[in-house]
Amino acid sequence: MVDESDLKQWRDAGHVARRTLEGIKGEIVEGKSWSEVIDSAERFIRRHGGQAAFPVTISVNNIAAHYTTNHSQDPMEDWEKGMVFENGDLVKLDVGVHIKGAIADNAMTIEVGSQGKHTDQIKAAKEARDAAIEKMHPGIPWHEIGAAAGQVTKDAGFEPIRNLCGHQMERWNLHSGLSIPMYDCGPNNPSFKGVVEKGGLYAVEPFNTTGESGMIENVAPNSSSNILRVTGDVKIRKALSKGKLKPLGATMARYIEERYQTLPFAERWAYPLLEKPFPEENEESLNKKWNALVKKLTSIRFLEVYPALKDVDGGFVGQYEHTVLVTDGGPEILTIA
Question: Which CATH class is domain 4-219+314-333?
Fold first, then answer.
């Protein structure tokens, strides 16, 4: 639950997050690269007084979530097209901002070009988000929130994605444990017990799909998103003393933890840290050293890596998202113009 004295930082983060979406959406045009838009959005966040709470993600067509570019601009293994926007692409732009750990998370879906092939799907995602938010008053069971979002999605002729959820947030913790259904899960689903709580901060993000099953799956390999996170479960000094880390590995782990704490970070943000201890190494050698470092830090559970996510049926996916603070009077949307 957020403390009243901290609310300014949460609201300021929400303001920057929304301004970033609105300021960057016009750059998603035919012929522009994904990396250009991602870099532009992350610069926008910094220029307006925030820090990225996670790497800006671009998810196109059947890719549902959790993809950002790496330092060498390599595409996902099963992505056969270039990482340049094409006419008719359905693009999810997901932006998170933090101010001293106070987080705002928001997203929108954009069609590249003016064909209007995805107009109904985009509208359905936005209206499902808004329907869920309208019901977010203290004491309302979570299954009713999911039912509200899911009904809008179904009525529009799409499937709600059932294994992607909204989430509660706390300072320095993007996913703080509680998940929010975005489909009609029913009152007896053990994963979504409890009710909306006053003072809670929640990311409300329904996903819809043109696929039949309403399910997403991981894109191989496990690191396909190019996003990592410090788990917070391993102490560097202890790992060093037990021989689980060598001095250089411990130093690199300390650099990463100091910069990102336990918020998700991009491979391309942390990779340049290797250039300081290895200034004469070529790209191939640095890549090997980076991969070995990540392998070691994940093996001891200091780091975790994330896969990108795609629709299991190859369906196109839409998404909209706001960050909401629940008050006595109901929902206060923090990521709103």
Answer: alpha beta
Percent of the chain beyond pLDDT 70?
A: 99
Q: Where are the domains of the chain?
A: 4-219+314-333, 227-306
pLDDT tens digits for 91-119? 999 999 999 999 999 999 999 998 999 99
The three-class DSSP label of residue 93 is: strand
Active-site position among 94, 159, 184, 311: 94
- Active-site residue, from 42, 159, 321, 332: 321
Known catalytic membership, residue 71 = no
pLDDT at 1: 62
Sequence-distant (6+) residues with CB within 8 A of 320 are: 107, 108, 109, 125, 126, 128, 129, 205, 206
Considering only the top CATH level, what class is 227-306?
mainly alpha
Query: What does pTM read for this prediction?
Result: 0.96
Residue showing tokens 């409890």: 194
Domains 4-219+314-333 and 227-306 share a fold: no
At 231-263, the pLDDT tens digits run 999 999 999 999 999 999 999 999 999 999 999
Res. 77: pLDDT tops 90:
no
Q: Which of 167, 184, 322, 332 is catalytic?
A: 167
Percentages helix, strand, coil for the chain, rounded to the nearest 5?
35, 25, 40
Whether residue 175 lies in the annotated active site: yes
* Known active-site residue 94: yes
Q: How far is residue 46's CA from residue 32's CA, in Å, rounded to a whole number?
A: 22
User: Would you tell me how many other CB atoms lie within 10 Å of the CB of residue 12?
Assistant: 19
